[in-house]
Each structure stands twice: as structure tokens, then as C-alpha cells.
Amino acid sequence: MSDQENMKLMKTLDDAWNSQDWDTFSKRHADDVTVRWPGQPPTKGIAAHRKEGEYFFNAFPDNCVSNNPYKILFGRDDWTCSIAEFTGTHKGLMEGLDGNMIPATNKTFKVDFCTVAHWKHGRIVEENLFYDLVGMMRQLGLM
Predict the structure, then answer these.
(1) Ramachandran angles phi, psi of 113, nearest 5°
(2) Given pLDDT bands bounded at 50, 70 and 90, which one contains residue 79?
């Protein structure tokens, strides 16, 4: 697929995340996708990635990847890179880095969120997510 097609797919992926359209979200990832998030081991497979997305929305029901427009979006060959503002309010239980459950703080976060995605046949096979986890935890009053 072309750079432009992959960038359009990236946009629809983040639209699906923001609207919790888990069917479209799943269709944008290969079944055996590898996803790397800050502060945790890689996630293997779309079922696990979708589950962690749904879980994240339980903790941060208003979270949003601001992609209209992205701060930066470009593609080259089978890769896309996007940077967006990522915001949310901690309203539900969240598992901490130590495995303990953290109750809602009702505090908000705002960080830049970067996705570097490797595409094959219109689906992400490898997704690398980067954001300031320490800054996010500080904003939530957890550090």
C-alpha cells in the first residue's frame, strides 16, 4: 500500500480508538501483532491488545488521541509515524507498574503520544507506542 493509504488507515485506527469502535480497531491490526507500550512487556496478538484497550478505557473513559489534525503524521514505505496530544481523566481502577490496583485519582493527564507502526497489507504487524509515562504518572498524582 502507498504511504498515503497507510496514513489514512492510521487516522481511522485512532478514530476507532477514540470512539471505542473495537471492530475497526481490530481490523487495523494483524492477528499476531506485536505492540510495545511504555513500562510493560510487549503485547502479543490483537485479542490481547483489544483487551488492554478496553481496560484502559475503564480507567480513563474520556481518554483521547487528538488526531484532527495530528501534530505530525508521515509515512514511508510500510511505516507510519504519528504524534498526537493524548489526554484523559483517571476515573476507574488501573493496574500499577507493580501489579497493584490503583484507585481513581480523578486527575487529568496530557502528554504527547507517538505511534510508529509497521504495516503489511493494510494491517499493523508491529506497533511501537511512546509517551512520557513518568510525566503522566506525576500528573495523576502517583509519583
Answers:
(1) -130, 120
(2) very high
